[in-house]
Amino acid sequence: MNTKIIMVGAAGRMGGTICRLAAASENFDLVGMVDSKDRVSSLDRGICPVETDLAALLPQNPEAVVIDFTAPAVSLHSASVAAQYGNALVIGTTGLSEVQKEELQHIALTTPIFWSSNMSIGINVLVKILPVLTQALGEEYDIEMIELHHNRKKDSPSGTALTIGECLAGARGVKLEDVRCSGRNGIIGERPKGQIGIQAVRGGDVVGVHTVYFMGPGERIEVTHHAHSRENFARGALRAAAWMLGKKPGRLYGMADML
User: Fold this and answer.
1) Candidates 2.60.120.620, 3.40.50.720, 3.30.460.10, 3.30.70.580; correct CATH number of 3-119+230-258?
2) pLDDT per position as a tens digit, 24-37
């Protein structure tokens, strides 16, 4: 049985890519597209129903999985609507605050929700591997990260960079918020021991590049992930949507669960 998909944020860069792949796939049926009033006119109504309100599509599609790549407030609204109708939801939105993440976890108690700051298989494998490298190298190695994205990205550092940073900090037994540095200027003195730097670069149409540097006595190790196309993330989101079929509510699912 094909997985039915309703896309929230269908006029966006990621949303458009997911819609195109879903419509062309033999395993998915695109049954609805949702976006704001000022963007919905750009969507092709000949493909499937188009609405400005997710609630208008869910009663006719009780088995559809909703995918949301929008903004934090919009994604939380989608979660509330999905919970009202009992639909599963996959969220790829970044930039959620800790309070918003807690709210999402609360909603996940009543409807199946999957959230990840990055749908790439490669990134999520790195999140498993980097803590091992961090612990093996020890505290003598300074850790820095540089992330590059296109000039239209709204949040900084990227959600992926923060996820990677959290796994690095966790491997050292600390919280990222206590050791993170995302800007240096002027006479700042020596680099504090244990600090984790995360610097953001924005420009052009870069899909996403994340490089982690481990710099120790006499050597440097660089681990880099290049996202060549948004299709990488879109395929991950569709894979998550198919995986969510039949899942029970009770907790917030993520890439680690699916992999």
Assistant:
1) 3.40.50.720
2) 999 999 999 999 99
Identified catalytic residue from 77, 101, 153, 247: 153
pTM for the complete prediction? 0.81
Annotation marks residue 226 as catalytic: no
Say which of 149, 150, 175, 248 is annotated catalytic. 149
Q: Name the segment(s) of the chain with CATH classification 3.30.360.10.
A: 121-227
Is 248 annotated as catalytic?
no
Token code pair at residue 156: 């900084």
Whether domain 121-227 has CATH 3.30.360.10: yes
Condensed to tens digits (0 to 9), the pLDDT of residues 53-67 reads 999 999 999 999 999
